[in-house]
Amino acid sequence: NNDGFNDTWEIDYLNQYESLHIDMYNRWGTLLWSADSPNIENWDGKYNGIDLPVGTYYYVITFGDNSGKEPLTGPVTIVR
Fold this sequence. Notes:
Elements: E1 20-25, E2 31-36, E3 46-47, E4 50-51, E5 55-63, E6 72-78
Antiparallel strand pairs: 1-2, 1-5, 3-4, 5-6
């Protein structure tokens, strides 16, 4: 709602990994946003510059730095 609180999805400690990739999908599997380190900007809940509707979206974070970590997945809910 652009009040300055929780207007973007922020992930702490991303700078600890040299190489990672983030994808955000809707419930139908459409890719809405993606980012690669080291220049990851916070996701603003938009797709093609338009606010997405209230709902649950799903992220996949993959690590490419040979860390041996499994991908992280989970939901992000937009509430306006």
